[in-house]
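re the bet — no i am not wrong, look at it urself. input seq straight from the record:
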Amino acid sequence: MASVPDLVDVVAFGADPTGRADSAPAVAAALRHAKRLGRPVRIVFSAGTFQLYPEQAKTRELYVSNTVGADQRYREKKIGLLVEDMHDVVVDGHGAKLVFHGLQTAFAAIRSSDVTFTNFSFDYAGPKVVDVTVAEAGVTGGRAYRILSVPAGSPYEVSGAHLTWLGETSPVSGTPYWSGVDGLEYTQIHDPATQRTWRDDNPLFTDVAGMRDLGDQRIRIDYATAIRPDDVGLVYQMRLIEREEPGAFIWESSNVVLRSINAHYLQTFGIVGQFSENITIDQVNFAPDPASGRTTASFADFVQLSGIKGDVTITDCIFDGPHDDPINIHGTYLEVIGKPAPDALSLSCEHPQTAGFPQFYPGDEVEFVDKLTMSPLENGRAVVVAVDGPSGMDHTKSLTTMTVTFDRPLPEAIEIGGTVAENITYTPSVVISGNVFRNVPTRGVLVTTRKPVLITGNRFEAMSMASIFISSDAYQWYESGPVTDVIIRGNEFTRPADPVILIEPTNRDVDPTRPVHRNITVTGNTFDVGDLTLVNAKSVAGFQFTANTIRPIGGPGRPPYTAPLFVFTGSTDIQVADNDYGTGTAPDRR
């Protein structure tokens, strides 16, 4: 019979549900007490608002995939709710709202198992993204002007012809947690009228003649040109580019569940799962708080899962307003840079955003892949027996290289600079079901895993790039690997970008007899589309596109479409049949 978990109430440790005081030290004390109990525990909040500042949050040296790599400026992470070396833990918000301040990770599970985070909302008081709306524009006195409206959580100062964003001021140091000038370093544009978001240049701070602070978070910019701006109503979402902290972090943990959470904003990156097992994300609302006046809900991706084994399940979520991909599930290719022994390799993390943490553990199975063809080498698998590399928690060793010893002599075909290694033990089965994707400037779902993938019952609204992207990349992001069993079924794609589904591994030698991907089925979906390509697929063996409904936008009076519906390169065993094109015919244009 399962034991009844102990109850630990953060309010009993001094947390303030009125939102007047900093609850960070009390929450940390409650978590310390729960850990000392050494048995199943339920950590509870109460209905109310809890402020959590970074100055008294837990600090750990950590290295996180797809963020700042080995950059020592950002090695220390602040974590608001840290579940570390714990087992059988539930963090239950009971409807609480958690407001995080400064630059910190909202919550993390590290070296823990059977952990659930549930029943709370969280946001950041001072997001490192500034959402500026063009409230008015015109020409007066021969000069163009714009009036900008700024959300309350984005303080600023106007000086001459420049604008300084001040982030939020620390109550301890009296200085801003971050600051930046004018358009910062990156911009994407959101159109609330069409519910579409895209990456583009920022014209707000070009040819500026002067600025005035009008009060009430409104700024007037006058320009040296007389060209009338045509962007009234658009929102310019501006930010810096360094991903200092993950929004949330799961590392070396198993059976972690995020359920019934409102994630109104993720500061400087999304939720990262890294070398963990069995992750469930269910009924999480990734969307800005309507009362905030903001349109951005994440500094970059929403969910980035790198090196996961077991099952990944993402169900019944809303993904609204990221600055990068809502879901990205992948492994990592490490490049061979040395052969110190017949049974050992020196390997390197090649992308600067990913470094500093273990990529292999004793007992893991590794596959060796030729970069040019992206094909596995003959007899190209071995089992890890020892690793000399980074720990993920300190910087005493190289953060970008490691030496891995295997259980057998390795194939002579392994080439320095021409072969990459993938940890195939840490590859998950994936279910992505019942989710809604909207206001996305990039792709909807990226997934590369050799285990079964089911993408079903989702709605993709006006993606600005491919709604679903399957890559396997050994040249740029080094995100591995091949897919062998993908079903895309019963989804709705409305107003998508071209192509809707993109399959594009980075093999430079494309040979149909050596496909990278296998067995992809697209069936029973609905596509509401303009003149575009539905599927662009490279290096696939076994692709089916059947029983789908394609509804042309514009109806019978629209101009003829000319784009090929299907583009296949270096692929074999293709079946396109029994689709309804809304025209009484089945052209299967290629």
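see?? The radius of gyration is 25 Å. told u. also The helical segments are 24-37. so pay up
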